[in-house]
Design goal:
The structure holds 2 protein chains of 2 kinds. By secondary structure, chain A is mainly alpha-helical. Chain A is 62% helix and 8% strand. Chain A has 12 helices and 9 strands. In chain A, the strands form 4 sheets. In chain A, strands 1-2-9 form a 3-stranded antiparallel β-sheet. Chain A has a two-stranded antiparallel sheet with strand order 3-6. In chain A, strands 4-5 form a two-stranded antiparallel ribbon. In chain A, strand 4 and strand 5 form a beta hairpin. In chain A, helix 3 packs antiparallel against helix 11. Chain A starts with 15 loop residues before the first helix and ends in a 5-residue tail after the last helix. The relative contact order of chain A is 0.13. The model of chain A has no long low-confidence stretch (mean pLDDT 88). In chain B, the strands form 5 sheets. A 5-stranded mixed β-sheet of chain B has the order 10-9-11-8-12. Chain B has a 3-stranded parallel β-sheet with strand order 4-1-5. The termini of chain B are far apart. By secondary structure, chain B is of the alpha/beta class. In chain B, helix 6 links the parallel strand 9 and strand 10. Helices cover 41% and strands 17% of the residues of chain B. Chain B folds into 2 domains: 206 residues, Periplasmic binding protein-like II (D-Maltodextrin-Binding Protein, domain 2, 3-Layer(aba) Sandwich); 96 residues, D-Maltodextrin-Binding Protein, domain 2, CATH 3.40.190. The chains are: A mainly alpha, B alpha/beta. Chains A and B meet through helix 2, helix 5, helix 11 and helix 12 of A and helix 1, helix 4, helix 6, strand 10 and helix 7 of B.
């Protein structure tokens, strides 16, 4: 015979929140949360009150005022009569330019150095070690200033290209001018251009879309689509017959043919830099400040990436490369097809933080007078308007968004290359 | 992460604003030291000498205020500021006053909430170019590369000048005068522009000053003067009247050489009031009776300070010009000590 008894009904008492281990941790968390929010509220309130007594309540109205200053490197049209928000946008684009250029260069140099550091050639391995150790052990600001000083002090000034007996001449068949104000390279021009489309009319975020660029992108997209089709067909034939038809000439034609035709249709030609007055005119002007910042940031970050790559490669057991060479693969193919794909899984997560570091380090730009967002919004605008808190908060938000976007993209890439577990 | 940074910024702002509200005069007296913002180095105006002692035209104002308030012209902590950091430093209370050839403008006074206590140098923005560039007027500078200190009024004047003359230029923003000098001398920019006095001071430090010319155009009014935060009028009065004391001393012929003799008593009541032997002007300011005497003794009267640091006898060689006493046809004029 069994006796069923209900367990005694527990009545909930308030003291259980503290003495009952089931509830205690939740209680503590709730209290901590409240304390934290009170502290935050007090801080915010304090800041607002103090700013009000100072006569500077938080407001973002200054963003639509006239900026009044000029920016040398601007990717969209801008003049001193535009608003502060437009100036900030120019700065943001400059930040993005140097970050993207820097990340790409740092990756290329870093992977190269990382692989070379493992080379069996004693000299090459040592040289790479010296590179890594010198670059990562000196603050990046010093590298930036050094790069700028070298560019300014060693290269000829535009005046040196002048006169009957110039002391400096242009390079590469008179197409590239290397001066201590930057490098002028030829620019692509179209005599039968399709023109631009103005987007957003007169607003601060207005921009132009070059129809030439759009046309090129469409043609390139179609070419790549065609190339995929050809490759798929070749794969199918190979599956069926075991023979792979020759496709490289078709692929090459598909890649370049339509683009070349479009270039001729649009009347493509190069615009060369020419010395006029004080400076070179025409061509694309890559300013010293950009080059110095780009070089210093990418070489500095590349030293860290090299170590990450080396660690990633060393993390792959030697059995893998031995197996590959047992199959008769050359060492370069082993690296490309066996080691690197596996190493990427180890490499990518720390790589993300290096990309983030590079992007954030780009805020040192003002040291060489590169007008990034810290120089425009966090520099001149903040100084002229006296809106420190607002500007700094906006700056932080901007860097946060950039960093989160980079992390997002890289995490997505990481997911796509990581080991698929079955 | 975002929250912590955000809150951190708020804390800083909150604390900073809290500091700003207190009475600066009492703070300075309690601290026993005046925190004075100066440039990072502009010979003649504010620069450390070989022994690390700060000296110069702006520095003398700091020393005079320290002497008036604390009785000791050396009780100054000089805080070097750039064009960009100076206002934040002052607004946050990091410095008590700013004497950094700063232009008095409407927006800085009204919008940035600072009080300019007077003008110690009437200046204007000029251009310096190498002589062999063959430029004789700023209107010939179409397409030139111009070095400019960021965060200054000169930046805005420059944009306006080139726009109104319908010519183009390429700005090269720089942080400090030293950087500007380096870039200019290396030829990374054709033109260096800042206040004409600053150009003269910079040129004086060149190896071959004669190879560089100042263009005739002065494109702006730049009244330079010391400033303090809005809202602390007692402190503003102290700095204002210290500056006025130096100016008045020159007008009345009180110099660091004859001041001891004058303190013994003169038959000019204004001198007596200034030097504290008559009346209670010092007590009204909350200072000792001999505050102005101490200020004048720290570096001499306005004319002496000018002559010693930037005058025609110095390498910088600036003429008094607009900065002569009103009695000599200049603009330097102090309200009466009464």
């Amino acid at each position: 015979m069994t006796i069923l008894t209900d367990p005694p009904k527990e009545s909930f008492r308030l003291s259980m929140l503290l003495y009952d281990t089931r509830y205690r941790s939740a209680t503590i968390q709730v209290i901590a949360m409240f304390a934290f929010m009170l502290l935050a509220a007090w801080l915010i309130n304090n800041a607002i009150i103090n700013l009000n007594t100072l006569g500077k309540p938080i407001s973002f109205g200054f963003l639509s005022d006239t900026a009044g200053y000029d920016i040398n490197q601007r990717l969209l049209d801008y003049d001193s009569q535009d608003s502060h928000i437009r100036a900030a946008l120019m700065g943001l684009l400059n930040t993005l330019v140097v970050a993207v250029l820097g990340c790409i260069t740092a990756t290329i140099v870093g992977v190269f150095v990382g692989v070379m550091r493992l080379s069996n050639n004693w000299l090459i391995a040592r040289i790479m070690t010296v590179y890594v150790e010198t670059f990562r052990n000196v603050p990046v600001l010093l590298w930036i200033i050094l790069a700028m000083a070298i560019l300014i002090e060693t290269l000829p000034m535009p005046r040196a290209f002048k006169g009957d007996t110039p002391t400096a001449t242009m390079d590469l068949f008179n197409t590239v001018a290397v001066t201590n104000r930057g490098v002028y390279i030829p620019e692509p021009l179209f005599s039968r251009s399709l023109g631009d489309i103005h987007v957003l009319g007169d607003m601060a975020l207005r921009f132009n879309i070059s129809m030439d660029l759009v046309a090129f992108l469409i043609v390139l997209g179609l070419s790549i689509f065609g190339m995929r089709k050809v490759t798929a067909r070749a794969n199918a034939i190979q599956e069926e017959t075991g023979d792979r038809p020759k496709t490289w000439h078709v692929l090459l034609g598909l890649l370049f043919g339509p683009t070349l035709v479009l270039m001729i249709v649009l009347g493509f030609h190069l615009g060369y830099p020419e010395l006029k007055g004080f400076n070179f005119k025409g061509g694309i002007h890559m300013r010293n400040s950009l080059i110095a910042l780009w070089l210093a940031l990418s070489l500095y970050t590349a030293a860290f990436i090299a170590e990450i790559v080396r660690a990633g490669i060393l993390a792959i057991s030697t059995g893998q490369s031995e197996a590959a060479s047992a199959l008769g693969m050359r060492s370069s193919r082993t690296m490309r097809l066996v080691i690197l794909p596996q190493a990427l899984r180890v490499i990518i997560p720390p790589m993300i933080s290096n990309y983030l570091n590079l992007t954030k380090n780009s805020s040192l730009a003002i040291a060489v007078g590169y007008m990034d967002i810290t120089g425009t919004l966090g520099g001149i605008t903040m100084n002229q308007t006296g809106r420190e808190l607002e500007c700094v908060m906006m700056l932080m938000a901007v860097y946060l968004v950039i960093s989160l976007s980079i992390s997002g993209v890289m995490n997505w890439y990481n997911n796509s290359v990581k080991l698929v577990e079955r | 992460m975002k929250k912590t940074v955000f809150l951190g910024a708020l804390t800083v702002a909150g604390l900073a604003a809290g500091v700003a509200a207190a009475g600066t005069l009492d703070d300075v007296k309690a601290r026993g030291k005046l925190n004075c913002g100066v440039t990072t180095g502009l010979v003649g105006f504010a620069a450390p000498d070989a022994n690390g002692e700060w000296g110069g035209f702006d520095v003398s104002i700091c020393r005079a205020v320290a002497a008036a308030v604390l009785g000791d012209p050396t009780a100054v902590e000089f805080v070097p500021t750039t064009g960009k950091t100076r206002f934040t430093a002052l607004a946050s209370g990091e410095i008590d006053m700013l004497a950094r050839n700063t232009t008095w403008t409407f927006s800085r006074d009204v919008d940035l909430k600072f009080t300019f206590v007077g003008v110690n140098y009437y200046d204007g923005q000029g251009f310096m170019v190498p002589k062999d560039l063959g430029v004789s007027s700023a209107t010939e500078l179409d397409g030139a590369t111009v070095c400019i200190q960021t965060g200054t009024t000169t930046e805005l004047n420059l944009a306006d000048f080139f726009r109104s003359n319908n010519i183009s230029y390429e700005p090269v923003p720089i942080e400090t005068n030293a950087e500007g000098q380096q870039q200019y001398l290396a030829g990374a920019c054709d033109v260096y522009t800042t206040d004409a006095s600053g150009l003269a001071a910079t040129r004086a430090t060149f190896e071959a000053p004669a190879d560089h010319v100042l263009l005739p155009e002065i494109i702006s009014k730049e009244p330079l003067g010391p400033l303090v935060r809005h809202g602390d009028n007692e402190w503003g009065d102290v700095v204002r009247w210290t500056l006025n004391a130096l100016v008045t001393a020159e007008e009345l012929g009180v110099t660091s050489a004859n001041i001891a003799e004058m303190t013994a008593g003169t038959n000019n009541p204004e001198i007596n009031r200034l030097l504290g032997t008559e009346g209670t002007l010092g007590a009204m300011l909350g200072l000792d009776a001999d505050w102005a005497k101490a200020a004048i003794m720290s570096g001499g009267n306005y004319g002496e300070i000018f002559a010693m640091n930037i005058g025609e006898e110095t390498p910088i060689g600036l003429a008094r010009g607009l900065n002569a006493q009103w009695t000599n046809g200049g603009l330097i004029y102090s309200p009466p000590f009464r």
